[in-house]
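#struct-pred

JT: dropping the chains for the assembly here, can someone run the whole complex?
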Amino acid sequence: MDIDKLRADFPVLQSSKAIYFDSACTSLKPRAVIDAEMDYYTSLSACAGRSHHTLAKKTEEKFAASRERIAKFVGAKPEELVFTKNTSEGLNLVVRSLNYSSRKKVITTPLEHHSLLLPIMEQQRRGIVKMEMLKVQQDGTIDDTSLSTIDSSTALVAIHHTTNTTGIRAPLEKIVKAAHDAGAMVLIDGAQGVPHSRVDFHKLGADFLAFSGHKMCGPTGIGCLVGKREAFEKLDTFIVGGETVETVSLQGVKWKSAPKRFEAGIQNYAGAIGLAAACDYLSKVGMQNIEEHEKKMARALLEAINSIPNSTIYGSATAQRSALVSFNLKGVAPHQVALMADSLSKIALRSGVFCAQIGMGALGAPKEGAVRASLYLYNTEEEVRIFAEAMQKIAKLG
Amino acid sequence: MVLCFIALPVFLVLSIFSAKYRALARRAMDCVLKTATLRPCDTGLDEEIKAASIAGIMKVSPAAASFVNRHMEALSLVFMLLMVLSIVFTAEGLYNYWAYGNCNGQQGGFCPISDIQNAALKVPSSVSGIMAGNQSANVTVIEFGCYTCPYTKTAEAGVRDMISQYGNRLSYVYEAFPIQTHPYSREAALAGLCANDEGKYWEYRASVFERQADLNANGTAVLYGIAKDLNLTQFDSCMSSGRHDVQLKNSTDECTSAGIYGTPTFFVNGKPYVGQTAIFDVQKEVKRLLGE
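RK: done, full complex below.
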């Protein structure tokens, strides 16, 4: 993996000269993705699956091919992939559309992103589900003993693949097994997992997997919900409209099967084409290479922050994690650290509670949260060295 | 929070020149309004300003950055106090400009607004003051002065030098423009016209400037004393008859209409110079015009 060559693919790195450590929020986009998305608007710009003119047919072909390539990227079949706006929409779709008539319990963890936690909390507020939590230890790992909470009254276990607060992966194998043993379904928030490691939907064994395009070098406004055919059949309709039905009469509606049943209205064709290009790009680089690179970056990051006196890192340093570290420097507010890193060395960091307020609280972070450095395939050890220098300087303010 | 109060006027002023500061001004305004209504300021602007300031200082001196970081609140309060003071002084300057035509009030002095205004000054349509030199000379200096004005007094030595140095090559005209806020300025102007009636204007002028402090302290008795010293026999009747009242009023009104607001005001071939140090510029201009 030639990082220097790879970095040339990302126009923002060339134009801004920034050190981009905010990939957990959104990743940078390579030229291939930008070109692919633009190509839709400049050479097609038509609807798929409706009209029969040449441009429409070409759009349909490209849209279908994109679905196929993205599905393949996560080890799924094209008909198992529903296009959504983002991960949040995919998670909402499952949590709000699942039938809870026979089982009401939904199990999750306090570490979840608001995109997963809030739909469950909303369903609970409406009296539709009963939410329960798996226990999380102080180091951000899940307490295996709490898996016993998953029982025959559990309808759904909804959990992250990798948290956006610590970069630590959940023990999915154990969780999926416990859920399926109890007859419950499993929904995985793959927003921070799919971009950073090889995720094979079928090997994972979950029923649903949601992820976003923009966190994996793809465009914003496009995401996916991957689900098993039989799992989709257990979902009620979500957003309905054009192309979600076979026939409509005043007496009743015959819905299409997934994925079409969940793709109402004109789709984000450009986004889908761009995301497919992103999957091709990541595949070309190699997810194994990316994972190895991130491991190296994670080690360098942890070392850099650990060397700062009075710094606090959230989550276990030894657990399997992506190149994402949340931390605080004593005596300097997290927002100030992030703003100063930007001013001093053009380092883009995130600060706050990362849309995971309960999770940050569970990790022992203060009310104002922490600073987060999240790296990706285009980051280098030299950048980590500059980051370390900047943090050393900022820490002295405290 | 305090930083937003400091930032608001700064960004408002910068907004006049650059659109990028308007969004910042809006955020500062939002923060100020929230603070004023006892709500938490959540714009984040104060944090951004603090971080940018400390980062800037850190590039020069990490120790100073650490000091500023530790004492940001106290320093902000000091800056806010300075800002309030500067607003007060600015308001005072604007009031002075409105009331006296000069930011510094009755004392006069450098005033940038006045300088802008001076460029628009014009010579009154008719000037009928005291003359000296050669009235057909190519270089004309017209002075509008006030006998009780310390700045006119300061300029006097330079005026005298100029008249004596250039003689017939210069046309000099003096017209009294009594400043209303200066006590006895009108009486001193009338006294000057009465002294001129008896051919002793320049002697009177020398005396009145010499005894300016005395006049300001003791009033018109000083003028009568000067008249007595100069043996002005018609002075009392001239003053009591109001012989020159209309003339002085008309010339003062004309000066005001022409935009003259302070003394001394000079016109060198129509080009205006105003204030305490204007005589030096006048001398340079005269020298230039005379090819010296």
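JT: nice. The first strand of chain B starts at residue 130 and ends at 133. The longest helix of chain B spans residues 72-100.
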